[in-house]
Specification:
about 525 residues, 20 helices, globular
Length: about 525
């Protein structure tokens, strides 16, 4: 009932938007004729004309808010610099909303591009097992936890074929025209051409999957070169800017006769605590955009970061820096053990390095960030061991192919291989073997195992293995293909580690150089008697 009520409320909202703002939507569609295509490719379940009317509604609303805020700022004469931003707020809103479907489609395309090679490998194994291509594609809709993006395509395919009565090839053609991913479009159009020309579908899917995995390896090398150039430019900018301006600032403070008015404490604050962090965040965002990503994110390190690191940082800065600076010296908050302990530790570091008093705040912030980041770093190192499970599964699949050649059944082969050492995967394999010996089905075992295995690539390989055995009988040819795909998955991960290993070290080296240079310079100037 709640779901139906929410649907009715949503429909009433869009009816209201389209009824009163259709005229604005028509004008927007004339200015931006690509909006309908972007809305379809983004997967948004909204009529393009209704979305254009919604853009008009949001633009008018932002214009009203902008006018009210401008009147308040002018009348009370507060924050005059913000007035220029508020004035152009409606224009920024219009531009953002018109490009939002394209941005959503780009994100959807990136997720599909990362997932579709594994989906194609699964389809090739299913078709080789005797399942029809349409039946194999429909099976993906049941694997939403393994193929989240591809399952959406599968559900749309089922809707077009079983509900709307389209033939499968026409349904594939519609999906290809609406998908934002060029890789998916190429796969579907190639399949349609293969079927219509009477080609071998199994051979097409197998070769297509292998080509996709080979292309990923090539992309990894190209991405590594791009990231290297990006980090080199970033480090050159950060090192030169920070060291040069810090040197001038220290001389400014130490020698009043040559002081420059522009290099004040406020200027350095804006540089060190606003501009440089903003540049770092932008570089991290750009790096995330250009690198290869899987359609799965492990949020556990982020939970620890936002749950421990951020609160601890704020706690240390508040008790070690803010309260002592605004409260009297003998105030209870200034004399509590926590505040005194933090201040004593930072004072000891400052005295050892001979840092002047005016850098005390910077030292306190550095100390807070260092202490607060340790739990997140330790936890990330701890859970990184779980990612080694893919290597164990790859070795297991290769051994499974070899032992199947002796004539043992797939289930018996799994039980026999449970005695081998496959690293992190061994404990899970022993549990699987024990349950198989008790007569429990492999699909039920793997479904329960997914609750304990969080690595997406491991889930994909185990899911493909389950269907290869239960649907295709675990033939040697299918298991051989699966082992080949697993080895390529492992090779992709190794290539990613090799390409990023050096790039991960470079920023830390640059940060250490900046820190050591500034500390030595501050210590030297602090020891001068002028």
């Amino acid at each position: 009932m709640n779901y139906i009520g929410n649907r009715v409320t949503r429909m009433k909202f869009w009816d209201f938007i389209y009824k009163y703002f259709w005229w604005f939507g028509k004008a927007i569609l004339k200015l931006y004729p690509n909006i309908p295509e972007s809305v379809r490719r983004s997967g948004m379940s909204i009529y393009p004309e209704a979305y254009a009317s919604f853009i008009g509604f949001i633009t008018i609303l932002s214009a009203i808010i902008s006018i009210i805020l401008s009147i308040i700022i002018i009348y009370f004469q507060i924050f005059p610099l913000i007035l220029s931003i508020i004035v152009i707020l409606p224009f920024l809103t219009l531009v953002f909303m018109t490009h939002l479907p394209y941005l959503i489609g780009s994100g959807r395309a990136g997720a599909l591009d990362g997932e579709i090679p594994y989906t194609t490998a699964y389809l090739s194994i299913m078709v080789a097992s005797g399942v029809s291509p349409y039946g194999a594609f429909e099976r993906i809709s049941r694997a939403r936890k393994v193929f989240p993006r591809s399952s959406d395509l599968s559900q749309r395919f089922i809707l077009l074929v079983r509900v709307l009565g389209r033939d499968p090839l026409t349904a594939f053609s519609i999906l290809a025209s609406r998908t934002p991913s060029a890789t998916v479009k190429d796969l579907l159009t190639g399949y349609i051409s293969t079927v219509r020309s009477g080609g071998d579908v199994i051979d097409y899917l197998t070769k297509k999957a292998r080509i996709m995995f080979s292309e990923i390896l090539v992309k990894m090398k190209i991405i590594a070169d791009r990231l290297g150039s990006l980090l080199e430019a970033y480090l050159a900018l950060i090192l030169l800017t920070t060291i040069s301006l810090s040197t001038l600032y220290f001389i400014n403070v130490a020698i009043a006769a040559v002081a420059l008015p522009a290099l004040s404490g406020l200027s350095m604050f804006l540089l060190l605590y606003v501009l440089l962090p903003f540049l770092s965040i932008m570089i991290m965002y750009i790096s995330d955009l250009v690198q290869y990503k899987e359609p799965w994110i492990d949020y556990r390190p982020y939970i620890v970061f936002f749950g421990i690191t951020i609160p601890v940082t704020i706690f240390i800065i508040v008790f070690g820096l803010y309260l002592p600076s605004v409260l009297p010296k003998y105030h209870p908050f200034s004399q509590n053990p926590i505040t005194l302990s933090i201040i004593n530790v930072v004072n000891s570091i400052a005295s050892l390095t001979n840092i002047p008093d005016y850098l005390y705040s910077s030292l306190m912030v550095t100390f807070a960030l260092f202490v607060a980041t340790l739990p997140s770093a330790i936890y990330t190192l701890f859970i990184s061991r779980e990612y080694k499970i893919v290597y164990g599964i790859t070795k297991f699949l290769r051994d499974l192919v070899e032992i199947r050649k002796t004539g043992l059944s797939p289930e018996r082969s799994v039980i026999e291989l449970a005695q081998n050492n496959y690293g992190v995967f061994s404990k899970h394999l022993k549990r699987v073997a024990m349950q198989l010996s008790l007569g429990i089905s492999l699909s039920r075992i793997i479904s329960g195992l997914f609750k304990k295995i969080i690595v997406w690539r491991a889930r994909v390989l185990l899911y493909m293995l389950t269907d290869a055995i239960e649907v295709g009988g675990g033939t040697i040819e299918n298991l051989e293909n699966l082992a080949w795909f697993a080895e390529n998955v492992d090779a992709i991960e190794e290539e990613k580690k090799k390409s990023l290993r050096t790039l991960l070290i470079v920023p830390y080296v640059g940060a250490i150089i900046v820190i050591i240079t500034i500390i030595l310079l501050a210590s030297f100037l602090g020891s001068l008697v002028i």
